[in-house]
Amino acid sequence: MKKQFIIAIVLLLCLALTACNKADTVTMYNTNIGSMLHDSVDVIGVTYDLYDNGYALIEKILHENAQLNETVNYNGKDYTVFSFGQPKVSTLQETGAFGHGELKSPDNLVLPSTIAGIPNYALVHCNASTITLPSGLQSIGVGAFRECRNIETIELPDSLTYIGASKLFQNCTSLVTVEFPINCQIQFFDNTFEGCTSLETITIPASVDYIGGLAFYQCYALNRVIIEDGVQEIKEGAFYECPALETLVVPDSVTTIADYAFQGCTNLKEITLPDNMTDVSAKLFTDIYKQNADVSGLTIYVNPDLVSYVQSLYPTANVVSK
Q1: Model pLDDT for residues 271-316, shown as the tens digit of each residue
Q2: Secondary structure class of 292 (helix, strand, coil)
Q3: Pairing outcome for strands 71-74 and 185-187
Q4: Long-range contacts of the stretch 196-199 (C-beta < 8 A, 24+)
Q5: 247-272 pLDDT, tens per residue?
Q6: Residue from 79, 44, 39, 82 nearest 63 by CA
Q7: 188: helix, coil or strand?
Q8: What DSSP character marks residue 14?
Q9: Which residues contact 183 (CB under 8 A, 6 or more apart)?
Q10: Residue 36 falls within a domain, yes or no?
Q11: Which of 26, 126, 138, 257 is the most exposed place for a label (fewest CB within 10 A)?
Q12: Could you tell me the residue range of the domain that residue 267 belongs to?
């Protein structure tokens, strides 16, 4: 009996150790990269975390002369550079591979072809002028390029299957345009381009369910927006303070446009509202602080059944049947 008890205890200990080992392993982008081996290591200006299945994650890029390679050799063994380590996120500020911005990046940052995905906030505060993404990249997390103030454009590869769009390009003040891949799941389109003061053109693909709050807040240069059929909702303040925007066609797939969606679009001259809207807010163009908006120079194209109703909401506007 005592022997059986000891055997049972040993088995339980083995199961516990196995569970701990499983808990210590890390899976990223459907790949088990294993368990972290030891403390981070510095190789040619880059800090890596090494994992026992032969993978390395970029923890920090230490200076502008750093070299990013597909593999890193440590103690005679090669490790595949697979992604970035998880950033530290606080209520005050996110910290990725460039810290709080005190770490300077190469002017032309080229990510290795072995990088499978970019986690949330991984490149926040990167000061590179260009960022080249690998052609096989699978995923980009929220806020990945937040505060990348020097990039003017970035090519998102067609290999992408997922983009977490929340704060993705927030405060990228030099960004002029970006094109989203066609066959890509795009979620959380909130604050996506907030503070992109140089952004001029954008196409919002059908894979975006909604255009979220403050998605284009203070995009002062934005003058051309294409919303593809498939987008279902435009949320409060989505185009807040986009004074260069003059015309906008909202596709029929949109069923809801929230209050203040176009607040501060002071030069908007024409807007086409979708046929599928059963109601129209009286505060689409209203200033949330002043509670009024001058729409005397605005033409609103609507479903014939809504002409009289919309005209009553905006008596100084020119409401026209589509």
Answers
A1: 999 998 989 999 999 887 766 788 999 999 999 999 999 999 999 9
A2: coil
A3: unpaired
A4: 196/169, 196/170, 196/171, 196/172, 196/222, 197/173, 197/221, 198/152, 198/173, 198/174, 199/175
A5: 999 999 999 999 999 999 999 999 99
A6: 44
A7: coil
A8: H
A9: 158, 161, 207
A10: no
A11: 26
A12: 89-321
